[in-house]
Each structure stands twice: as C-alpha cells, then as structure tokens.
C-alpha cells in the first residue's frame, strides 16, 4: 500500500508499507523531454546510518539530475520515518529496501540502486537479486575508521552490476587509494570527508566539490543509457 503527499520543498513524498515498517520516497521527476532522456533510469538513493535525505550529496543530485532526464527518488528507511535515532541491523535495512522496490520500478523504467554510506551497502547487497540496472555508491564505508582490517570490500565487489563509487579523498571510512581493484569505477572528490565536506582552505570550494560529484554521476548515468 502506498500514499502520496507533497513533501517539504521540491518533490512529492510517497509513503510505502514494507515488512520493516512504513518507508518514504521523495520523488524528483525528470524534466527532460527528449526520447533519450525519457529512456534514462530512475536513480534511487538511500541515506546513511547517521542522517537522512537532507545530506548534501543526495540533495545536490536531486537538484541537478532531473534536468538531465533522470528521475531521482530519495528513500527514507522505516527507522528514519519512525523518528528513531539508531539504524537497525543490515538485514532489516535490506528488508525495508526490498519492500520499496515495487514502487521504485512502477514506472517501468530501469532503476539504478544507490545511496550514501550504509545506504550504499544496502544497494550493493541487494542489487543482483532485485534486478537493479546499476549501483551508485556514495561514500562507501569500506571499513570502520581506523580499522582497515574489517573490510567490507566483498559487498562492493559482489554487487554484480555496473557500479560507480564516489569517494571523498579524506574519507576516514576508506580513502580512494585503499579500494581494491575490481570491476567498478571510482571517482574522487579531492579533500572531501565522509559527508563530502571540504576544508575552506584546501582545494575546491564546497560548491565545486558538489559539482565534481554531480558531474561524475551525470556522465556515468549518461553512458548507461
């Protein structure tokens, strides 16, 4: 069962019942009108374990991609919709994501599964079984900070579909040079941390950092059509 209402700011919010509880999708429809634009996939983006869809990278993509013919769906997991502060176990996150999938595919377009941090892990773990067209992993948490021995590379390498990782150059959860070789693409946002924040006196400005991120994603999605 789904219900729809106007969400805050741009976008239309749709509540979807899942086995993990009610989740929410905020839709940012494509504005492109060409045949090529209409054929582009929906990009579904989940949030991290420590925040919601207000994250700067998710909002930047929702603002930029519709003009390139890509519909963006920002997904809020049931725990976040319920107002809880702590994310549940990965298994429960996967259950919530699976429950949203029919709503994400309802338009009949291919869906690129994605998200930031914990949301990227969910997308990687479930991509093959759900039939995702590709995966976009933003700030993939390759390992806990300071614990490179606890690698999550198997989740990334096991996505089974074309995958783009966009990683901050100073991300404590895994700098670009730490990522293992594999069949995925990696784009770096110089000097950025796990939330893609950049120091004021180091390289690109915050706006420029978001332009690097959105440019990398836009180019990659265009090549998927």
From TrEMBL:
GO molecular function ontology, one term from the record: hydrolase activity
One Pfam family of this chain: Abhydrolase_11
Keyword DNA repair: no
Keyword annotations from UniProtKB, A to Z: Hydrolase
Region (Disordered): 1-23
SUPFAM superfamilies cross-referenced by the UniProt entry: alpha/beta-Hydrolases
InterPro entries with a match to the protein in the record: AB_hydrolase_fold (IPR029058), KANL3/Tex30_Abhydrolase (IPR046879), NSL3/Tex30 (IPR026555)
KANL3/Tex30 alpha/beta hydrolase-like domain mapped to chain residues: 41-217
Cytoplasm among keywords: no
PANTHER family documented for this protein: TESTIS DEVELOPMENT PROTEIN PRTD, TESTIS-EXPRESSED PROTEIN 30
Name of this protein: Alpha/beta family hydrolase
Species name: Streptomyces sanglieri
């Amino acid at each position: 069962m789904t219900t729809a209402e106007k969400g805050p700011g741009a976008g239309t919010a749709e509540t979807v019942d899942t086995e993990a509880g009610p989740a929410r999708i905020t839709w940012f429809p494509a504005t492109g009108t060409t045949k090529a634009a209409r054929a582009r996939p929906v990009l579904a983006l989940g949030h991290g374990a420590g925040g919601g869809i207000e994250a700067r990278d998710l909002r930047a993509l929702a603002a930029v991609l519709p003009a390139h013919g890509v519909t963006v769906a920002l997904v809020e997991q049931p725990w976040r919709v319920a107002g809880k502060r702590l994310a549940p176990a990965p298994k429960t996150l996967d259950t919530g994501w699976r429950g949203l999938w029919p709503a994400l595919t309802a338009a009949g377009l291919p869906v690129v599964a994605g998200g930031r941090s914990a949301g990227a892990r969910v997308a990687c773990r479930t991509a093959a079984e759900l039939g995702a067209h590709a995966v976009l992993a933003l700030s993939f948490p390759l390992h806990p900070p300071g614990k490179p021995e606890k690698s999550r590379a198997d989740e990334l390498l096991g996505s089974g579909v074309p995958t783009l990782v966009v990683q901050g150059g100073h991300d404590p959860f895994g700098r670009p040079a730490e990522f293992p070789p594999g069949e995925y693409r990696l784009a770096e946002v110089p000097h950025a941390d796990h939330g893609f924040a950049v120091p004021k006196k180091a390289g690109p400005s915050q706006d420029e950092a978001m332009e690097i991120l959105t440019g990398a994603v836009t180019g990659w999605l265009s090549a998927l059509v």
